[in-house]
Amino acid sequence: MTEKNARIDRLIDHLFENDPTVESERALLITASYKETENQPIIIRRAKALEKILKNMSLVIRPEELIIGNLTTTPRGTQIFPEFSNQWLEDEFDRIEKRKGDVFKISEQVKTELSEAFKYWKGRTTNEFATELMFPETVTAMNAGVFTVGNYYFNGIGHISVDYRKVLEVGLKGIREETLAAFNALDAGDPEAVTKSHFLEAVLISIDAVIEYAHRLAKLASNEANSVTDMKRKDELIKVSEILSKVPENPAENFYEALQSFWIIQAVIQIESNGHSISPMRFDQYVYPYYLQDVENGNLSEMEAQELLDCLWVKFNDVNKIRDEASTKAFGGYPMFQNLIVGGQDGKGRDVTNKLSYACLEATSHTKLPQPSISIRVWNRTPETLIHKAGEVSRLGLGMPAYYSDEVIIPALENRGISLEDARDYGIIGCVEPQVGGKTEGWHDAAFFNIPKVLEITMNNGYSDGQKIGLQTGDISSFQTYKQLEEAFEKQMKYFVKLLINADNSVDVSHGQRAPLPFLSSMVDSCIEKGKSLQEGGAKYNFTGPQGVGIANAGDSLMAIKKLVFEEGKMTLPELKQVLDSNFGKDEIQAQSNPKEHLSNIDLSDLTSDKLVELLKSLLSGNDDSIESKQVTVDKQEAVDGEYIRHLLINGAPKFGNDVDEVDELVRDVALIYCEEVQKYKNPRGGTFQPGLYPVSANVSCGLETKASADGRYAGEPLADGVSPTSGRDQSGPTAALNSVSKLDHHIASNGTLLNQKFHPSALQGETGLKNLSALVRAYFDQKGMHVQFNVISREKLRDAQKNPEKYKNLVVRVAGYSAHFVSLDKSIQEDIIARTEQAF
User: Fold this and answer.
1) Can 431 be counted among the known catalytic residues?
2) pLDDT recorded at residue 13
3) Looking at the whole model, is its pTM more than 0.90?
């Protein structure tokens, strides 16, 4: 273990001194560029826009930093990308600083500048074009909350890892030479020669612009070196200036050059487009030769190398973006999902864990920041020392690293047509999505599909809030068997999946025609060879990955209906529907009580079910001094019965997460209905759809769109998190929960599955705690689970952080497939994290 340099804490303090700021510079520059390039091919316009931005954007070097290259002038600021969408931002100008989570500062001047720029983009955005392409019934289903494609509907695509190794080995100059050779080799008789020439020309423009951007930074560093009096800082600035005069234009020759070259690429990808999840992936593999060379040759001590690495880790957290207010409930905590994974095997099946793998984990322990989102690959030949080190980081309470199984992911990718050698070289994009770096346009997080909402619509014969949005699969009063309900649910699922496909493909076409990305494409295999951008199908592997959300809720609901309605006859489907429609009687109490007096000192949303029953009993007896029973006009006995039925639904049928085959198999079936349907379809880039089962934190926002469900969940409450059991329903310990989740078919969900577990810190204390964690991970992966991650923090600490946020500014927790500062999260997401079952060995 190496010591942390004091510089690192000072860099962190500077970065997080203030709330992030909205800046207008990029929006103004791209608008000016588009006005100058009217009627030129769109790919050329995109390249010239990037060129104008990189030539004219303000450059800054933050105090004491050793890795430089800014996206904004203010720390953690955000630029605006009006070409994707902008109307939502203008509508929310006056609420941005008042949000409950993901707060941004914005000046009146910036509002004025952006409003003026946005006028040009009216009717020109990818968002507007995608909407025009969608079928009307698709938009109706989307508006009803069945699914959302908001990620790429409003923003750039992202979710990619480029060939960083290639950049380090040949430099942008090498990629430029490859592009020029392809351009010169074009056949005039090729029917695609014209479009190919435009793409290749755009790549050349983009590469030259990035090289100039690095040279501008080199000059700035040199100028600052001339103005400082501190000799140590002067030497540091001279050094980084020399490095940026060389890379990324040329190949990197040492560790420092490799890190700085990497960062310029990482930054510019996110200046070109605001798609997040630009993931370094197998950083410990392509950077290791430079680390090994310098440390072994004595050019750098391990401590000096660690300081440079720690500086880069801080720099990852300078990347930010603003999302619309609704999306912050699905992506809360300013996440950028820059996933970096260590360990695993190479293309020949040999374990390639190395010293840099451990140094990366050490950098996370030193900085204790949300970015990069660090992960670890595990297989039977993973050294126990690596898992031990990962466990040490896990018990810091950051929710990192996430653990992934080679034994599941490699065959899952092979099943999608990826070669064995490429599949073995996978990394993780964003949250939990496996991908082959530098060869794939994966379109992960393409949508979030609300499975419990589809069951709700099934119970209502295709209607939602009085509007027909689905198929009429039969009035539930006509269902005589559970099989009839199951068949109706499956029909609705297939119908809505098809609409989801239409939505995703509409957004896909829109990006291909209006926002291709030439610089990004230049660093992904096959694009230069094909003469096509990623958005037009240039990558070697092309996928679209929408996520299913709420499988545990849907499975638990179906289990309760199967057992309590059709097997034991304790209620009928119409009776159940009536109770669900009334939110177990809760809505009647709130709607019909006197608003001045009734429950004036009580927050119903915070009541436990037992307390609610006690309250209702006191209402019936008229003994509650704070509430005059004569003011309550609701049928109180009906409300009590609703709560009784809720308890019956919860306790009268087994729940997923307790290693009970009957319900576990039902949840598996629900997941398979979704996954098998999704994988039938193709996308406009010549690739296929692949399903995932994870929500980011959209289980919270999807829950808001979903009425009460037959698993005993109140209307509006969050859905289950990923493939995790519903919070509080897994009562048989962590092993039983893992056993249940392992019964799912993780291989078919090749776009990723997500399992969260929460442990009290005492569970991981000492060597015994670390050994228990390692055994738990290996046992789960032996049963063919794909992924697991751990929040190691007490419920009491999280509650205190809610009450005293100023004391917990640096508290980082696992949200879903990413970590974030707890106090920056919307309260609804905070509550979801707190509600998760707290496990112990």
Assistant:
1) yes
2) 97
3) yes
